[in-house]
Amino acid sequence: MTAIEQEKFETVIGLEVHLQFHTKSKIFCACANQFGQAPNTNTCPVCLGLPGTLPVLNKTALEYAIKVGLALHCEINTFIKFDRKNYYYPDLPKGYQISQYDYPIGRNGYIDVLSEQGAKRIRIHRAHLEEDAGKLIHDSNNKLSLVDYNRTGTPLMEIVSEPDMRAPQEAYDYLNTLKLILQYLRVSDCDMEKGSLRCDANISLRPAGETKLGVKSEIKNLNSFRAVKAALEYEVTRHQRLLLAGKPVVQETRLWDEQEQVTHAMRSKEEAHDYRYFPEPDLVPFTASKNVVEDIRQSLPEAPQDKLARLKKQYELADYDANILVQDPDLSDFFEECAKGFKSYKKICNWINGPVLQEMNQKKTSLADLNLSAKNFIELIEKVEEGTVSQLVGKDIFKKMLDTGRAASEIIESEGLAQVSDHKALERFVDQVIANNAKAAQEIKDGKMQALGFLIGQTMKLTQGKANPKMLGDLIKRRLLDG
Amino acid sequence: MPYNELTAHDLSELLQKGDVTPEAVYQDLRQQILKHDNSVHAYVRVNDALSFKKDTADKNTLAIPIAVKHNICVKGEETACCSNILKGFKPPYDATVIQKLKNRGIPVLGHTNMDEFAFGSSTENSCYGPTRNPWNLDCVPGGSSGGSAAAVAAQEAIWAIGSDTGGSIRQPASFCGVVGVKPTYGRVSRYGLIAFASSLDQIGPITKDVRDAALLLNLIAGHDPRDSTSADIPVPDYPALLDKDLHGLKVGIPHEYFVEGLDPEVETAVKEAIEALKTLGVQTVDISLPHTEYCVATYYIIATAEASSNLARYDGVRHGLRCRPSQTRKNSITDMFEETRARGFGEECKRRVMLGTFSLSSGYYDAFYLRGQKVRTLIKQDFDRAFKEVDAIVMPTSPTTAFKIGEKANDPLSMYLSDIYTISANLSGIPAVSMPCGFSKSGMPIGLQICAKPFDEATMLRMAYHYEQKAGWYKHKPGLEEKR
Amino acid sequence: MITRETTQHIANLARINLSEEEQTKLTRNLEDILTYISKLERLDITAIEPTSHVLPLKNVFREDVVAASLPQQDALSTAITQQDGAFTVPQVVE
Ligand SMILES: [Mg+2]
Ligand SMILES: [Zn+2]
User: Is the full-model pTM beyond 0.90?
Assistant: First the structure.
């Protein structure tokens, strides 16, 4: 396909994101909202949809939903109601999902997506609250599907964008921006691997200049942002080929095959959906008064883009440093906490973006799971900065702090790691090294200063790294040149 | 007199004095059931041995076994709405009302027969076969709580609970000559009542007299945090409020309820009851409820729409019946759903699920479901307006007395029309009671219906009590022949 | 108003297999009932709000507090078939 042929078409993409809230209990019952339990151990008559049971809304779930709506700049409906979405599937125990139809929590919002091409505003069509379904595990050997209802009733927010994205990369950038905004709200893990963030994509192509939408495919089974991008790229090509060959695009749901990196049409026959939405009679309506919404708006945390700007200004951080910090709200909060007690911001930043991030990536954990207190952390940085320990030893101490939970000063003391800064003691080591390395010593005397590093290294070895390297250099020079 | 022929309030006094034990009451009930339930068939299950709590705070003065409709969940006991699709379903939990009764030491005597999922007005649509009217075994007991009403009328239960979506407590109470109360929507928790139509369903008492109804309503009413539609309004002491006289009360007589189609014998009995109320100090006012003629149509849109969704959970996945098509090539999950529901649901059930699905379906929603909801507003406004003027509204419970078994089986619409006088209370949410007000020449009971303002069951029951005591119909009992 | 095709479409939505006779009978029943219901068309409802709930209740919540779930064996006590702690159904094809 030539570039000119490609330019004949405009790609139109809209995304549907489902976000699980990490409330303590489920949305309509008091079962724990947990992940990774044995099948059907996290259920009760209500979330099993047993005959006779009734839902009661979790207050926190509604508050979280309003939070998300506000963070996405949505208009918040003051009248909120729930509706039944009727369809049959074994993972849906009541035969309907409690969702929202004509009065969603929020609508007409937007987010500003930053990318290499600059900022682009993607509009949010609507954001509504609903309940998650259970999970099917297929046992092909026995021609069975196993049904686990643990996930049933997890609070879920569905965020539907307008079809405002024009390329797979834009969809990718949108998802990253959206995820960051959501992470800052602290209403969800936003973890695609665990399924707490899920995404379906709608894509269609139309001749450049055309305003009417083309026939779309809906893509499911997307397990990472990268998969979203790859699947969309695959679909762009597939649609182009069909359109150029004059063949019709069929409106259908397609599944992404991560292994083969292709999409294929769902095998099950798809009937025209008729969800027969109607108001949920088991739940009464809710009102989000101006005051309530205003209170929640006031309590919203700083948005990531605002925080980025502020960090750069307030702490004079470089773009690069600030960007890394902002990618994780925990990290940037931790930075700011440290910055209260230690004024060399660049140093804190280096330590966070260096050893701390390395440790998190290696152990695949969050900052919270590292169990690192700001107080202990800045004490360590201080010890390194004032020369009590070297940078190298400092990194070892950092690991020990994480392993044991002890303070840096404790570790330095109990393990005798403080740098030897006592002149008399250091002189003895230096003299020994000079005596053992006469050739190098002579070179320095002759003005060949390259050998200095070697002698410093030898002395460090002798002191097991506890010597202050700057002091050592001065001492060796004085011994050889002044004496 | 055998204990099973007494009322709960009489038995309660005897229990208090220690003149009777709960076991003795149970034994007499069992005797009566063994003797007559073969022919009446009020029960689908009678519990073998009941465990009576020995020392509850109220000295077991209420330890009187109760009959429960088969759609109210009792932990560990089959609760199947008399449907093949739920046969064998034993809920792992108690309905809130059952929990309340058990907490007061009241054991469940057994589950009573009903129309499948409460879809019917005759208790003929049960997978366990029909119940018969104790006053005439060839007649229906009404429905859908026909089993509960027949059990009380046949002295096979001291008291019972049923559920009322469009008259399912009041119409069988009327047909069986007992007292049936549909409380205000939200007065009694629906948690554990297997739903027919969520915005209309209420659980209520079926008893031998008004005092027992007041007593039982007191026990089951009240706010329940498990039911979002349950009202957080204090429950008055209904029995204590019965005695105050009726002077100063205003009663509305809606002329729309005395029109063609009303059996003249019923009309006469109800009009006599109104005269009796006047002698008790009640002032009557002619009123109009102009949207009465639209009640049945509105009801059949809303009730079936909600039912079509409420019954979606019977899919053969988690409980009850599962069927697979006989053809081997049909083995998808959808085939399983379709076959399970085809074989598990009875004829009336399919009809209602189909009708409800239709009125919610794309292209028909506005013309049917939405229109139904709007007319519901008009019907409710009729009552709001009327209750600005009156304290209660009096009308017949049913246009006729009990009809013959099989008489309306092939005419669903005429069956629907037998609820014509009871449906409005469900659509508007108001409380209503049915009680005996006479007998037809052929000896069948006639029911009087009294409706009141939302949450004013106290006034409604007080009026019913004074009429009952003056008229004395409660003393009449059916002469059951022992079946050989 | 109701054709056999409509009846079959509704039966598909409601997931009920209908026999030929049932299809015929239900088509007639639905037609009768809907004809009766059509009396509602006589009313002018343009300015009327729909009623979903008769009670003016609003904002009924529960606090976000956890209570015990059912033990697995109780959750599965009603199961028709089960395996490895899960309900089982004929394999679902996606
Ligand atoms: Mg959704
Ligand atoms: Zn639960």
Answer: yes
